[in-house]
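hey so u asked for the seq, here:
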Amino acid sequence: MTDLKFLEYIENFVSPNRLELYHKVLSRRTNYMTLVLEDIYQSQNASAVLRSCDCFGVQTVNIIENQNEYDVNPDVALGSSKWLNLRRFSDKENNTYEALQTLKSEGYRIVATSPHENDVLLDEFDVNKGKFALVFGTELNGVSEIVKGNADEFLKIPMFGFTESFNISVSAAICMHHLTHKLHQSAIDWHLNQEEINAIRLDWAMKSVKYSELVKKEYYNRQEA
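ran it, structure tokens below
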């Protein structure tokens, strides 16, 4: 749980204009939809996904590292990763399985963005059935067989040209644009809950205040005195 007294204290060091912006942005953030990036090896594409997540208000990105370690490309992400929750799955023998089971335990539908005999077109995807995790695979091979075997649903973007697939960053942006619009037009409560908001406010304040760890240490030292 977030220490609300310390949150109030640290936010005193943040300008009122920035705090107002934080509240405005948080009012449009969601964890009803989350993204999963499986073993992406082109950092510029994965970083572009993070930038789109920030723009569309998707707060949490789950990063699976099996063969490839993911590094944020600062020239592409443009600082967007600073405002997102990045959750990495990298210390297990089967990180993909671990990530999917964790998300399922949190109530997410696992939605593989891959052509499949039972796939659903993006326009037809039902956001009302519950929160969902969109899984994107490598640029060359798509999602793994483990994802396909554990997916609850399959999602496909309609295409009308010779090329069989979009770049991963383009695919993610198209999906998020369409599905966030659907959520905003629905009666679903897709907003962050209060504890999520408080935790993110604290994270953002700590990142915004110079020498924030020193400020935090001095605050708790005074509480113990």
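The CA atoms of residues 14 and 208 lie 7 Å apart. The mean pLDDT is 91.
lmk if thats what u needed
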